[in-house]
Design goal:
Number of strands: 21
Strand order of the largest sheet: 4-3-5-6-7-8
CATH class of the largest domain: Alpha Beta
Number of domains: 2
Distance between the termini: 44 Å
Helix content: 25-40%
Radius of gyration: 22 Å
Shape: globular
CATH topology of the largest domain: Rossmann fold
Structural class: alpha/beta
Strand content: 15-25%
Number of helices: 13
CATH architecture of the largest domain: 3-Layer(aba) Sandwich
Largest sheet: 6 strands, mixed
């Protein structure tokens, strides 16, 4: 007789909470005739419908489970479908976020003796910077909130305050090193002992360092830790010293790894990451399809923890783009360009750069092809989706001919060269 796997109490409680408080999930449960009180086993759970990014975009406020006067903080995603999705956090959600990062950053060995320099923004409705701040405050570490960009300022603060830990996007770390080399800064003798790498993968499927991670370590021999998170999950998966997967805090999130048909893949097998948030009050999500491809490691970690671990993010489904630590989709890029009167025609190209990362170039036709126009386009990108691609001006004839040459059925405005460029 096949063993029936019971759901944990936090999962069952979250399902009941959604049925009672979420307008969106109440409709879904009614549509599929789901009685939340009868969901007890993993088999029951796996029959529940998925939540997609498109659902979040189309019915954003219907996911809110509390009155607006209980909302303490509002954050947004990067606008993957053209307009950022809002997430509403209660006071309890902020406490949960602090607890999440306390656990995650403690896993990477950060403690109250550390001084941590944060190179990600705490403003612009970004969840990440707030999460790091709250978690480090709970740990009791000292904080240097420098924010993103400007390598010169980063090094000035490293020299002055002597932080032991850096939280940064790995590709930005390379820019910091390039600046240091050009300006005679001996970074190998700096106070930094470890870097928490955010927004971009630094490991291959076998947990060896990828080109990006290996390049940093070759130049700067210190400890690198990978962490993976998203606004939708409000939870982080962070490596320990062993560097073989981000530990999963099972009280905060339930993780599934599924194939294209929505079935659970065998243990250790690659699939799409699907998550259910636990303990979230404002906007909990049920079986949310992240679009990210990874795998779960179930064997005990040599660090002594028995929790499952999430492997490196190996890619993304369909045309998802990970650019400078931000997740994007082509429609969001097109939406930005179409909203600019200065842009008459365009085509976007994504490829793989020498570090194995997504590289984004937008070829633009504008009647005013000058530095001011380029700046306005980039500023609008940053204001809308937080990152700006490389802008290359072309003639209208060049772009239209290019579009028509790609498809005989209709013109296109997006080219994905990643599979062609990726080396196996």
């Amino acid at each position: 007789m096949e063993e029936v796997l019971e759901l944990s109490i936090p999962i069952r409680n979250q399902i009941k909470y959604l049925a009672e408080h979420s307008a969106y999930y109440a409709r879904i449960f009614q549509k599929y005739q789901i009685d939340a009180t009868t969901i007890h086993s993993l088999e029951d759970f796996q029959k529940l419908p998925f939540t997609s990014k498109e659902d979040l975009h189309a019915y954003n406020d219907d996911f809110l489970c509390v009155p607006k006067n209980q909302v303490i903080d509002i954050v947004t995603t990067s606008g993957t479908l053209g307009e950022p999705v809002a997430f509403y956090l209660t006071d309890g959600d902020l406490d949960r976020l602090a607890h999440n990062e306390y656990l995650a950053l403690s896993t990477a060995g950060i403690n109250s003796n550390d001084t941590v320099q944060i190179t990600t923004t705490l403003d612009k409705m970004f969840m990440a910077g707030t999460a790091y701040y709250l978690g480090l405050r709970k740990i009791g570490a000292s904080l240097i909130r420098v924010g993103p960009g400007v390598p010169e300022i980063q090094w000035q603060n490293i020299k002055r305050f002597k932080p032991t830990v850096l939280i940064a996007v790995p590709s930005f770390v390379l820019k910091m090193l390039e600046y240091a080399e050009k300006n005679g800064i001996n970074y190998t003798e700096s106070s930094i002992a470890k870097i928490i790498c955010i927004g971009e993968p630094i490991r291959n499927e076998d947990f060896s360092y990828n080109t990006l991670g290996a390049t940093i370590l070759h130049k700067w021999p210190l400890k690198l830790y990978s962490t993976y998170a998203s606004t939708e999950m409000a939870t982080a998966f962070t490596e320990c010293d062993e560097g073989c997967g981000g530990h999963i805090n099972e009280d905060l999130i339930f993780v599934e790894c599924l194939d294209d048909e929505g079935n659970t893949v065998p243990k250790g097998t690659v699939g799409e990451l699907v998550i259910t948030t636990l303990g979230v009050e404002g906007m909990p999500l049920l079986r949310f399809k992240t679009g990210d491809i990874s795998f779960v490691v179930h064997r005990p970690c040599t660090c002594g923890k028995n929790s499952p671990r999430l492997g490196p993010i190996l890619g993304r489904k369909q045309q998802m783009i990970k650019y400078k630590g931000t997740t994007l989709y082509p429609p969001a890029i097109s939406e930005v360009l179409r909203s600019l009167k200065e842009v008459q025609s365009f085509i976007t190209e994504v490829c793989i750069d020498e570090m194995g990362l997504d590289d984004l170039t937008v070829y633009v036709y504008s009647k005013e092809q000058n530095a001011d126009t380029e700046k306005k386009i980039k500023d609008h990108f940053r204001a809308t989706i937080r990152v700006a691609p490389t802008i290359v001006f072309k003639t209208l004839e060049e772009i239209e001919k290019w579009k028509l040459s790609i498809s005989f059925r209709k013109p296109v405005d997006f080219i994905d060269k990643r599979l062609k460029d990726r080396q196996f």
